[in-house]
Fold each of these.
Amino acid sequence: MGTINNVMQIAPMLDRLPKPIASIALELLESHWQELLNGIDYESLRHRYHGGILDHLRAVLKVLEYMWSRPGLDIAISDFATTYRAKLDSDVASNSYCPISMDHLHQVLVQMIRALDLNPDGPWFYVICLAAVAVEIGKLSSRVLAQVVEGLSHNLKQLVDEYALSREDADQVLNLVTRGSMSLEKARSAEELALYLAVYLADTIG
């Protein structure tokens, strides 16, 4: 997919976030735009090419949008499992390769239900989307990641001081960004699991 198409999809998805959050996310992208146009996503299985970080971000945001269009995160993962079970069966019948692991999706679902039992209110969509943008930009280099975390800390503190964001949500954004790449075994909160699932699906099929 071309860079222009990526931009045309990413910008509207971020514009749908609450205004101050959308502004922070878009400002992060703009400040690192030239680097992102050529940035190679070495952490991804499918986006190891110039502009791959933007392509991967588009795929992650698409998964997150779908997840929040469902009645609940656990239902969204069940829907993913149903969809890709049918795809897996079809691919097996036609001797094609399906990159999705049904067992892995089941493990994510089980851990998500456990996390939601501990926090029935569940995570906020905008918290995870903002973290996803910051995590993808941070892939450019450790120097860029440090800049992103510093800038985010400042911007989020302003929102907290203005009562536009809770301290808990601000801390969760920074936690997701600083945790970076995580394994399913290390993911504990529903926020971490939602971001992990979005990255997993973007890596395998996005």
Amino acid sequence: MRAKFVNESLDFERGKDPKSALGIGMREVIAAEMAESPRGGEYSNDQRALDWACTYGKEKYVDWILENGRGFIKTPPKRGELRSCPLKIACINCYPSIVRKLIDNGFRTGYEALSEIVPKVGYVSNKEDYMKIIEMLLESHQFSANKIQRILQDAIESKGHFRDSRDLSKVIVWLSEYLEKISK
């Protein structure tokens, strides 16, 4: 009887825990990092871990949690409901690649996220990323005409916050086009 040999190749990254490089024990790796971070806390459930990963822009952890986690609430919280919204967290903290992954996985947010992002475009250095997020939200969500009008009015009134009037113009055009599209 001849013995069969299997050649396997594993790519370990220098300086990394071999288990985390392979994705084994990832929940423990995430839990340890959460416990060490300022507002991390305990990995009590996958939703909490996803919120934490979205807060700190831990894209690799977001990928793992989305693939292996359970019990996600993908809709925005209702008025008075005390829970977070991972998509809103990723939007406000300006992580466009995480926002895209969450939207592609069916997560939705309320118009509050959009209303908090629009004014930020005017005074942050990474305005291109916020602009991408605004565009993604408008493409993927169904906001009511009333709420879009309110955000549009706020954007026009806050024009003093925009250093570059072209940024304000882009936002106003996008919001106006979206309003026109949903009004039909």
Amino acid sequence: MPSTDSDTDVDPETEAAIRQVIGNELRGVVRALAQLGGGLLVGLVGLSALTGGLIAVDAPPALFGLVGVGFLLLVAYGWRLPPFR
């Protein structure tokens, strides 16, 4: 809610700059959350499809471990990408 106090008068240019900075910060947070959520969704769908394929071909248990390690390596690689680094 905007303030109507006369003690806190801010010129329009400063107020516009403040609003722009706050808007940019909020968009950055939303972008980061969307990237994280999208990565989780794609990762879970991909991992479940790969696991289902391994179950369908009756793969040995060691292969499931290798797939899990590979998935963790992809997560670690993704963590080094923007906006997380």
Amino acid sequence: MLLGSTRLLLPLCTEAWDLEPVYDDPKIRQRDWFSMDSYWDTVIIDGGLSYGKEFADRLLPTVLNNCDRFVSRTFLNPSWPTTYAVYFPRAEELTPVPQEHKINQVYSFYIWNQKQS
């Protein structure tokens, strides 16, 4: 499952949810992320935790209760003007704290792997 419709990530998912898709793709459903009502093995989001602290705090339990793993590319220090990004969380600010895979000073990947092996 992809939250949003990042074109380069669509090949990785079977379904994507976006309230306002900007292009047509049969995988994209016009759905609210907070309406997640089925279980997914993996959920991916690209930058969506940056929509605000309250937004991230509300989204995390919604997603984590409905998947085995959650992968988020999270902006830390964008070097461009942002329209929607207003919150740039560090891993330790999130509950539960994710595993962090640092890429550079601009963004990092956070992974919550809940599946017990």
